[in-house]
């Protein structure tokens, strides 16, 4: 019990003194996750708006596929990206394996279906309200999509934050494609796994505190956005 209490005290001290390794790992985690979130949002949000506005033959199949991919095991995504980026893979010549770029690619694949599915549900409801007006104004498809994306920006931000929460806590795919290399690809989740295995519970707890703080911050923002969204409707 005394060892646990001592480790907890050391962890708190590492956080409040801004330990160099802790700060480096946290900043790298944010860099990778925010980069992945930006790329995923650029892909997922227009796709969600297109699925809400346009009716085409395979629309329902695409929506079902996105919903199914939300449950895709991250470690499988990591394995697929690893095979593609390995020396014998089609993109092996780029030398991206075991780099932050490979980690970003894996996270993008993981969170695009999540962001697109959540965004589509919100934009579908918004489209039902705007449908008659936009059709009567003889708007183009691009104008309709732009209108939905702008007016639904608060709901879309909620979808993006959900993607951030999923990405920041991911460990399986990141470990496979990043390799958990010190000062290169080590992020919060992989560092926690490593430090725990080494028995360095103080650093593991400190990293865990930071990860929990980030997750709580994202959830609080999502909750606040949900409350303001409902308040705006009233």
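^ Assign residues to that structure.
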């Amino acid at each position: 019990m005394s060892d646990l209490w001592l480790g907890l005290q050391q962890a708190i001290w590492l956080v409040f003194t801004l330990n160099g390794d802790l700060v480096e790992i946290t900043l790298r985690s944010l860099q990778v996750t925010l980069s992945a979130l930006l790329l995923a949002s650029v892909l997922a949000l227009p796709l969600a708006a297109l699925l809400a506005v346009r009716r085409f033959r395979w629309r329902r199949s695409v929506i079902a596929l996105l919903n199914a991919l939300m449950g895709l095991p991250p470690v499988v995504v990591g394995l697929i990206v690893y095979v593609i980026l390995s020396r014998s893979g089609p993109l092996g010549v780029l030398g991206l394996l075991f780099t932050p770029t490979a980690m970003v690619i894996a996270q993008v694949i993981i969170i695009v279906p999540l962001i697109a599915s959540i965004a589509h549900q919100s934009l579908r409801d918004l489209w039902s309200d705007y449908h008659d007006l936009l059709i009567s104004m003889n708007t183009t498809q691009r104008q309709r999509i732009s209108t939905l994306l702008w007016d639904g920006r608060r709901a879309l931000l909620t979808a993006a934050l959900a993607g951030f929460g999923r990405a920041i806590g991911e460990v399986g795919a990141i470990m496979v494609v990043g390799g958990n290399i010190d000062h290169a690809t080590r992020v919060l989740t992989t560092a926690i796994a490593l430090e725990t295995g080494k028995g360095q519970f103080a650093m593991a707890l400190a990293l865990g505190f930071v990860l929990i703080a980030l997750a709580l911050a994202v959830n609080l923002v999502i909750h606040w956005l949900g409350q303001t969204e409902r308040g705006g409707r009233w």
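The two ends are 52 Å apart (CA to CA).
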